[in-house]
Amino acid sequence: MKAAVSVMDISKAWGTYAALTNVSFDVAPGEVVALLGPSGAGKSTILRCVNHLDTITAGRIYVHGSLIGYSERSDGLYELSDVEISRQRQSIGMVFQSFNLFRHLTALQNVMSGPVHVLNMPKDKARQIALNLLEKVGLGQKGDSYPSQLSGGQQQRVAIARALAMSPKVMLLDEPTSALDPELAQEVVVTIKALAEEGQTMLIATHDMGIARDVADRVIFMESGRIVEDGPSNEFFASPRSDRAKQFLSRISAH
Amino acid sequence: MTMVTSHIATASELPIIHRRRWGSWLLGAAALLLVATIVAAGIQARILDLPVFLDYLFSPLILTGALNAIVLGTLALLIATAIGFVAALMRVSGNLILVALSSTYVYLFRGTPMLIQLIFWFNAVPIMFKTITIWLPFMDAPLVSMPTTAVVTPFIAALAGLSLAEGAYMSEIIRGGILAVDQGQRAAARALGMTQKKVLQQVVIPQAGRIIIPAAGNQYIMLLKSTSLASAVGYLELLRIATDIYSSNFRVVELLAVAAIWYLVMTAFATALQTTLEKLFPQR
Ligand SMILES: Nc1ncnc2c1ncn2[C@@H]1O[C@H](COP(=O)(O)OP(=O)(O)OP(=O)(O)O)[C@@H](O)[C@H]1O
Ligand SMILES: [Mg+2]
Description:
The complex is a heterodimer of chains A (255) and B (284). In chain A, 46% of the residues are buried. In chain A, strand 4 (58-63) and strand 5 form a beta hairpin. With 255 residues, chain A is an alpha/beta fold. Chain A is built from 9 helices and 12 strands. A 6-stranded mixed beta sheet of chain A has the order 8-9-10-3-11-12, sandwiched between helices. In chain A, strands 2-1-4-5 form a 4-stranded antiparallel beta sheet, covered by helices on one side. By secondary structure, chain B is an all-alpha fold. Helix content of chain B is 77%, strand content 3%. Chain B is built from 12 helices and 2 strands; from the N terminus they run ααααααββαααααα. Chain B has a two-stranded antiparallel sheet. The radius of gyration of chain B is 27 Å and the shape is flat. The two termini of chain B are 43 Å apart. The chains are: A alpha/beta (255), B mainly alpha (284). At the A-B interface, helix 2, strand 8, helix 3 and helix 5 of A face helix 9 and helix 10 of B. Adenosine-5'-triphosphate is lined by residues 14, 19, 37, 39-45, 205 of chain A.
């Protein structure tokens, strides 16, 4: 079967600093992959490259078969136009650590914003979709609240609903629970778990071992811009192969 | 349990006595006294002849001047906002040439007195371009061809001068508003699949707009008063008309008071407009 996401030998440099070096992996449709690793490992950078918010310096990324950010010609890869890249992003949902809801819109309007302003869907239809999604993330009563009136956990669930409203083929989640205290984080984990059970393809950068252990099928462990270990989640936690992963896990379980 | 309840009850029955701020009261009284002394001195000296003042307050000439000032100030603000918006977008575009052009514009127009700019436009443009000619394609004769002095009337010169000068200030205000919308929201909008233009329309402008209203209101008030500079190029605005009248009848104080009253009315109007807009678009 064709991969949902195919990251092929990508590298990313910020000036002379190599944030990613020769990173390759595939995500199968319906698979949930957790990106683990210490701070600065390059987890966020990978996610931002997958939807071309950051540009790679070498390699290629395919999402459901289409080359992200570039068009291939005989003499090289040419960067796509704003409109073309925007079209590719429509099927890639993204959720951020700091929620990033539109502050001037209600929860409902936030969720409607993609369908209405990107897909030009009629407002009535978009509203119906948005209401269903808010219901799904447990916020059916909060549609008229502005972000400033919602708790962090509620804001993050609205952000997830906003991404889902585009019916993305792939969801990228960058530390979706890191800004939340354990109780609120749990609400978000429940939502993400439900998505996983529905077969949503997800790539999740996280420091939350609960997500990596209970939600993810597979773990990719990184350090300093390289993949150190890549394998099924249960194997990673039961018997990590690399010393670096063992050290990482022992430090976490010491908490 | 009952102990606790009764304890709270007694506590709430005791009146709360606020601390008196004697110092600020004394200061307030002193300030009032000072104001009263000045006003009394003014009245005693009969600096203002009330009937004359009232006579001129609603005279047609003065009213025309006030109207001219409002029209000039308001149009200038609208044009300045458009100029400022474009200059602000250029400034944040990241394109070196556009950034340089925009910052040079802001530096020049913020950095020189408005009066110099007004006189410059009125005098220099007709010298630089002797005639203004507009050609349409496939026509033997130009559509419009006239001497520049006929186009650059005092009103046009004043409007151009005020708009360009004010545009420099507005561009900085608008740029501030744009920058105040965080990168995270832009990234989220891009990730949804919005084009740069959509991000600007749907996410940045609505929030930046709300942020710039108070500062823009302030600029509007400044601009309404700056219309008095237009007298330098012969535009018949409020202050110019008042000056013309008192230079023939020597009722200086009365006429200046009349002009001041109308400037205050304009300011009240601008303030009310700003307050209404702020209520209409509450900060979230
Ligand atoms: N805009 C940038 N300019 C320069 N360097 C950057 C930029 N963004 C990220 N980096 C660097 O790239 C490296 C990888 O960053 P990244 O944010 O991907 O790490 P991460 O694994 O997500 O870390 P964390 O767990 O703290 O979120 C870091 O060393 C970071 O300093
Ligand atoms: Mg990160």
